[in-house]
Amino acid sequence: MPPPDKSLTPQQLRVRAVRRAALAAAVVAARGDAGMTQTELAERAGLPRSVIARLETGAASISSDRLWVIAAALGTKPSRLLAAAEADDEAAATLEQ
Fold this sequence. Notes:
The chain has 97 residues and is an all-alpha fold. The protein has a single domain (10-85), classed as 434 Repressor (Amino-terminal Domain), CATH 1.10.260. 67% of the residues lie in helices and 0% in strands. The chain contains six helices and no strands. α1 crosses α5, α2 (38-45) packs across α3 (49-56) and α2 crosses α4. The two termini are 22 Å apart.
């Protein structure tokens, strides 16, 4: 479980937001490529639609277990979702800090 926002510095909060946004964009793109709605993805992944919505808006992070389940439901691999997120220049730059 990630640390609560109140325990993070402003820089750590910014990094968290950038990384979440990059993963969100990767999931949204993969879902679009799969021709699925949030509801369909949630059903295939066995998760509430609210979990998918929060992930896709960058409002929440997910566990590695859920990343695997979501990737499988999308017909892809977790590594592809993470690679797509890392391809975001701003997100990739957070690895160099």
